[in-house]
Amino acid sequence: MVATLHPEGISPTEKPLLRASYQVAYQIAKLKKPHTIGEELIKPCVLEMAKIVLGKEAEKKLQQVSLSNDVIHNLIIDLSDDILEQVVADMKDSPVKISLQVDESTDVSNCCQLLAVVRYVKEKKVEENILFCQSLKTTTQAIDVFNNI
């Protein structure tokens, strides 16, 4: 997506287009669909619906929403980074100590995986979130797990 940069960032006229791209990226990630579905299926359908229901002007405006594979990929990374920041902030704001559960395993392809789940209190309610899931480059020995945390 090409946006006009102002001192504050993206111009106000481009913000709805960017928000629309984020909404589509969120749904694609949530439904675990291939990133190319935005460009190959969703956008053509939306453009056709806009042209039929709202007219050519709406179709022209929606044509500016970028849903390419690379854009969707980058937006999903932005969304996941934002979620991680929110979880970390919530953990820091927790009125009680947090609980961290770590599990390691080796899958059938002999790849070592490390998963960390965190529990904390937010607004008098216990929250549970995956903090991270990453491959271990070495072994699943305690020292390697510790060094990755």
Automatic annotation (TrEMBL):
PANTHER family (UniProt xref): EPM2A-INTERACTING PROTEIN 1, SCAN BOX DOMAIN-CONTAINING PROTEIN
Phylogenetic lineage: Eukaryota, Metazoa, Ecdysozoa, Arthropoda, Crustacea
Protein name (Swiss-Prot/TrEMBL): Zinc finger BED domain-containing protein 5
